[in-house]
């Protein structure tokens, strides 16, 4: 075994919509976590793996954005993010460029003070600000917490991503691989498929609908006699009849658009042709039902509640 080999878990935390999933996808050079410009896109903890045969293995934990929970799903998401802190070896905190340290950031600082781990601050989206301003923002954050490192970066444009990887390796403990060399994620294919459909729904739908949707895969099966054709049936769950009408659209146009966009990406994931059928069902207030949340893949009993 390589005695200089390092391995460990890196928790990516931050407010909703700061680019955590985009950063993780770019760091591992593969799209696993869905992304959109709407807050609370990531709902579950997602684990991905970056392996360098010479240096080591980094297991990234992409988490839901830390926010003020308004229902049981919100509580689940916040707890999913907080529980990753105790599983991590290194914390990667993502923020947007700016001088304002708000209540959400101060709450995150409180959580960081409890865990006593190396904390790397990534100031994301630097492509959107002038260079002299970046030094200002670094100085602002340096005053509120003793970060081990502060790295300006742009997940979307791929700026300074190598610096992030190099810096993580500095703080990882020595140890063997946790996963096989070719492992990229712990997410089952069915789960990734459901999330792709939800992502395309987020992209296509108006503001009020996306927070109240979930996606379940009813069927995922290779068609007999056709190796390269997968039949998939999925249901988009929403909370109101009016939302169901918006998701289906006039003459089924919106549902067709979601299905077409999702199918293209699912085919790339599965390396197979896909026959995708989508339905829409209403489950009123499902985000406040433990039973329905569990049915839709959000297992509240597996997430320890933090007081």
Describe the structure.
This protein is α/β, with parallel strands linked by helices and 307 residues long. Helix content is 36%, strand content 21%. The chain has helices at 20-28, 72-87, 103-115, 131-142, 161-171, 189-204, 241-248, 253-270, 290-295, and strands spanning 6-13, 46-52, 56-62, 90-95, 119-123, 149-152, 214-222, 229-238, 273-282. The strands form two sheets. It has a six-stranded mixed sheet with strand order 2-3-1-4-5-6, with helices on both faces. Strands 7-8-9 form a three-stranded mixed sheet. Helix 3 links the parallel strand 4 (90-95) and strand 5 (119-123). The termini are far apart.
- Treating each run of at least 4 consecutive H or I residues as one helix, how many helices? 9
> Low-confidence spans: pLDDT under 50, at least 5 residues?
38-43, 302-307
Q: Within the largest sheet, what's the order of strands?
A: 2-3-1-4-5-6
Structural class: alpha/beta
By DSSP, the count of extended strands is 9
As a percent range, the share of helical residues equals: 25-40%
Q: How is the biggest beta sheet arranged?
A: 6 strands, mixed
Per DSSP, what share of the residues sits in E-state strands of 2 or more residues?
A: 15-25%
Ends distance? 42 Å
Radius of gyration: 20 Å
**Which descriptor suits the 3D outline?**
globular
Give, in order, the helices and strands. Answer: EHEEHEHEHEHHEEHHEH
* Averaged pLDDT: 83
């Amino acid at each position: 075994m390589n005695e200089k080999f390092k391995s460990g878990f890196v928790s990516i935390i931050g407010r909703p919509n700061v680019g955590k999933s985009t950063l993780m996808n770019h760091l591992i050079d593969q799209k696993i976590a869905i992304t959109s410009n709407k807050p609370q896109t990531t709902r579950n903890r997602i684990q991905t793996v970056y392996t360098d045969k010479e240096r080591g293995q980094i297991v990234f934990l992409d988490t839901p954005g830390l926010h003020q929970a308004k229902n049981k799903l919100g509580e689940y998401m916040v707890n999913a993010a907080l529980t990753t802190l105790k599983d991590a070896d290194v914390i990667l905190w993502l923020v947007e460029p700016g001088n304002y340290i708000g209540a959400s950031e101060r709450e995150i600082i409180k959580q960081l003070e409890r865990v006593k781990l190396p904390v790397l601050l990534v100031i994301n989206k630097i492509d959107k600000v002038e260079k002299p301003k970046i030094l200002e923002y670094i100085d602002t954050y340096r005053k509120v917490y003793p970060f081990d490192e502060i790295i300006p970066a742009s997940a979307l444009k791929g700026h300074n991503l190598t610096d992030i990887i190099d810096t993580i390796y500095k703080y990882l403990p020595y140890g063997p691989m946790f996963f096989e060399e070719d492992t990229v994620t712990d997410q089952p294919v069915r789960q990734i498929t459901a999330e792709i459909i939800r992502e395309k729904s987020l992209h296509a739908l108006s503001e009020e609908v996306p927070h109240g949707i979930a996606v379940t895969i009813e069927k995922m099966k290779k068609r007999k006699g056709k190796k390269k054709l997968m039949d998939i049936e999925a249901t988009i769950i929403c909370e109101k009849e009016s939302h169901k009408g918006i998701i289906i659209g006039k003459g089924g146009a919106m549902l067709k658009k979601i299905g077409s966009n999702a199918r293209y990406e699912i085919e790339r994931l599965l390396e197979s042709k896909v026959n995708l059928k989508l339905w829409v069902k209403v489950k009123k207030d499902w985000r406040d039902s433990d039973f329905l949340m569990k049915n839709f893949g959000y297992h509240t009993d597996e997430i320890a509640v933090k007081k």
